[in-house]
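so my prof wants the structure for this chain in the tokens format not the other one, which i didnt know existed until like an hour ago. anyway here's the sequence
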Amino acid sequence: MKIVVLVAVFGACAPLVAAGQTASQAAPRRPGPAPATAATSDRTAEAYSQFLQAHMLADAEETNAAIAAYRRAMDLDPGASAIPASLAELYLDQNRPADAQAAAEQALRIAKDDKQAHRVLGQVYAGYASNAQDTRAGRTSQRDNILKSIEHLEQALDSSVKMTEIDIRSL
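here's what i got, hopefully its the right format
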């Protein structure tokens, strides 16, 4: 599906490229606000290209190349929360919870309601809770991580039902 969209975009631009024109040359200029600069448009397009490439590389289990493509996409479009959220998910799939946490937190700094980032953080904190040691400090850490996990998973679900009312002292 992603490839079809990419091919369609390139196909729509092909007649203009063949004629040696840009989109702005092909259409008459209309009065109004100035169009976005070509550099911004090119960076966004390249970021999207890198993002799609990262997905394809991840599907092909070329993890290091996928991570590099996600990083390039993040550099090109630092305001897109979907990029670090997808990177966080890849890290989580690779059992790299610290990296997943860092990438998901970066996504939430961009967009505090990014559901994918919240879901990843919920899973990361659940994993931390399950690995806690059976000591007083370990149980305290486990309880804190369970609460964080629930909080992030609730935000990922965007449900009106709040699970934090559960008495976790019984855990």
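also thought this was worth mentioning. The helical segments are 2-18, 23-26, 38-59, 63-76, 82-93, 97-110, 115-130, 136-157.
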